[in-house]
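Q: I have two molecules that I believe assemble together. Could you output structure tokens for the complex as a whole instead of separate predictions?
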Amino acid sequence: MIINHPLLGPRDSEEFVYLGAADLINRPNNWEQDASAEDFYQYQYIRENIAGDHRELWYHEQGDQSWLVVTRNTLSHEIINVELAQDVSRGIGRGK
Amino acid sequence: MSQMNRIKGGLVNQKKSISFTFNGQILTGFEGDTLASALLANNKKLVGRSFKYHRPRGIVTAGSEEPNAIMEIGNGAYKEPNTKATITQLYNGLEANSQNHRGPLGFDLMAITDFLSPLLGAGFYYKTFMWPKAFWEKFYEPAIRNAAGLGTLSTEADPDTYDKGFRYCDILIIGAGATGLSAAITAASSGAKVILADEDFLMGGRLNTESIKIDGGSGSKWAKDTVAALSTMENVTLMSDTTIFGVYDHGIYGAIENRSSEAREDKDKPRQVNWRIYAKRSILCAGAIERSIAFGNNDRPGIMLASAVRSYANRFAVATGDKVSVYTNNDDGWTTARDLVLKNVRVVAVIDSRSISPVLRVPGAEIFMGTDVVDTKGRRALKSIKLSNGKTIDTDCLAVSGGWNPNLHLTCHHRGIPKWNGEIASFIPDKANPPGMTVAGRAKGTMVLSDAIIEGHNEGASVASDLGYKVKKSDPSETPSVSYSVTANWGVPSGKNRAWVDLQNDVTAKDIKLANQEGFKSVEHVKRYTTLGMATDQGKTANVLGIGIMADNMGQTIEETGTTIFRPPYSPVAIGAFAGRRRGMEFYPTRYTPSHKWSVEQNAIFVEVGMWYRSQWFPLPGETHWRESVDREVKQTRASVGICDVTTLGKIDIKGFDVSEFLNKVYVNAFAKVPVGKTRYGLMLREDGMVMDDGTTARLSENHFVMTTTTANAVNVYRHLQFCHQCLWPDLDVHMISVTEQFAQYAVAGPNSRKLLQKVIDSDCDISNEAFPYMAAGEITVCGGIPARLFRISFSGELAYEIAVQTRYGDSLMRVLMEAGEEFNVVPYGTEALGVMRIEKGHAAGPELNGQTSAYDLGMGGMVSGKKDFIGYKLGLREDLLRDDRMQMVGFKPVNTQDLLQAGSHLLNLRDKPSTETDQGWISSCIYSPILGHYIGIGFIKSGHSRKGEFVRAVDLVRGNDIEVEICSPHFVDPEGERLRV
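A: Yes, here they are, computed for all two components at once.
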């Protein structure tokens, strides 16, 4: 596979390490509440098994060490979009 | 007589003889021959035995689709089994041996299976070897394993060299026949970067095997001229003898280039190169593959595909028989008869299953229309055939054509499912080819050559212009239009005789019928039940025929029957080609520590740890057992001072305004208020609450920290920290870089460590206990101004420091430290002594951080902060992780101090029998403590923290050990930690 890195251009997938669904960015912030146990459980273990466009985390370990959010069609392997994970994280309001 | 079947002409160089052996017999062929053509020239009709029934078999095809003529090439370590003779270029000294027979090829002892064939039909494994149950392991499986398989491995390491390579192009053209060459010419004329690959060592495809004319000259000359023209173009790369074996994602193609002839001259040159070709677009021009017809005893040596008979006559100048007959259901079979007559090879009969007028005039041959071949005779070579009209014809070679199947293998690699085309009675590629691939010529079902040339010409132009190149207008080459008409013929009733469909896996029409009768309706099920198409040739000549037979059996159309699809590789690829140069020591990079050279000089024994070579121990002259060295290293360190290279521990340099806040989020314990000049031990969890790693982090200045990780987890921890920063807290001002290899770091441990270091560290740096207490960290200079870092941390439990310099000073620093330590009787110690001392101190390491242990399990629950969020906080509080009866880490010592305690032993209550139910835990790390004078271990046992003082058994059923041990604190030496602080 070829991943079109937003900063470095097309790179072979051999340079990357795969982690999992991009939902892992959305770590719960409500650790002080009792109810957050369920949220953390969902965050850690529960995944959609998507047949189609899947947003997932790839790490450019043999490159610039950036984490990327890659949108990949799990049926065709077509890569629809590649973003820097930190931009995605900021985009959903994960600031300081 | 030498080469008795050789005729005039062809594309072989009849002036250049080549000598080779077949089953030990010395034979000659010519330059340009394949092994198969040379064998046929020498009248070797019987070349192997079949897989299951050990039937005598001969050469069937002239290409990579060959099911029968697969051989062992070379000998000793060089031997390569299952090599197709039909694509093996002949060379001087080639050694070929036939496969799959016991005793000589002509009299195979295993041929008994042929007479047992009524018992060995489809699914016989599943039906026969069921009972008695115990027989499977002891009798059936060894017997089957012994009988099964084709060639044998050398069992020695492959001495050949293989390489990998990468190529990039705009357009990859697969197949250099008429279509591919036409496409290459127009595509290349646009300036687009073109790679043209063909599996044959001679480009031209079937043009080299046909008598047709292009642009007024012979087809093979046109091919040669076209290749010559392409070879002068800078934007064209020609790759002959190169098989495109797989189509991968995003325009990546796997290609194997065979460079055997080069490798034979020079052993350092690769035998094969595994290319990864990155292509924006590709044009598949892989042509078509002929199929057979299922009739009785259609597998005898001498029965070949009609196109192959033609290839051997036209290209290789070999007559495959003296009295050739042709059996066809399509016009193309007649071409074989005509070409043979042109070559003065006698054709005795043409049999066409269609009731039409003869397609061509074939002088000297009897013509039978609307007639089939129903049986044949001749065990080791064909003698005669019997026709459906009752007539018997004497013939030594039967050329069979059941029609042509587009070679669409590669179009299936992204799950493209071929669709049926009634007009050519075969499958053609579906529209859903791999993205970026177009198909042209006969591979697409365009069976008429003149049309295929135009299609290639146009496709080359259109793909180039899609990519933005300007294509010069030109006309396609011209050839007379020869029509192709076919009427499907899947086979004729063969009575008791077997009609073979898949020659390599010995699958007959009857097997397919049996599978259908037993309820296997799906092609995929029939394939697996009968093994149709599952041999090394993936059924290239068999699949469509088998599907046709299935459709007939079930009284349905081929569309209703469906088709199996193809997967990579197109043809088998040697494992060595995937490994390339990454074998032995080159399997992955070798990393040496900064003290490696010095350690080699000390005759150190090395061990591979996390891709590093670390000194394991340093034997002195006279020491014969590793324990002598290790015990000495431990005692001397604890008594005076020892030095250990700890460079391999991961080091991460972290800078920024928010580092302490960041560390607070990744460690379980508080890091917000670590003072400058201090080091703190930190425990890191995964989000699920299990311990991930531990290490120390020093604050060198307000905004500058250095973290250490374990050697094994250096990469994972760095990746994890980057994840935490970039994905979870992107706005924290934190900047990280791994500096593991940038700093040489040595542990200097033992009561005399300070005295030793004071001799090396510049005098303005005060490292007295008051100025530089336990857990202090700071930047210093050594040896008169060389910058260094000093950390007062201890893994051994002694007064100890770790000192770091830039890696380029690492070798010198080791030598300086050893020299300075002479007066203290300093000792270098390796990873074994390091391990002994950490177990004596009860520090958890790799065997304890196994991904299933929580901070509480390790006895470090007290470190876990309840006042902050950190990775693993919430899920670490799950009630099951806090239960008291979890496996908890404690120490163990033998009751009888003479007893041997071993890691991996399981723990049992005193009177229990060993079983899964009674298992109480296990010993994870174990050593002999030279300080205590007996074995000690740390491990995990149920409710361990509250069971100290209890006696249990450590049982090792594998090594036959069963001893009584006492549960104790894991801190065996200096539990109060007084020695650290002096």
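A: One point stands out. Chain A touches chain B through 36 residues (CB under 8 Å).
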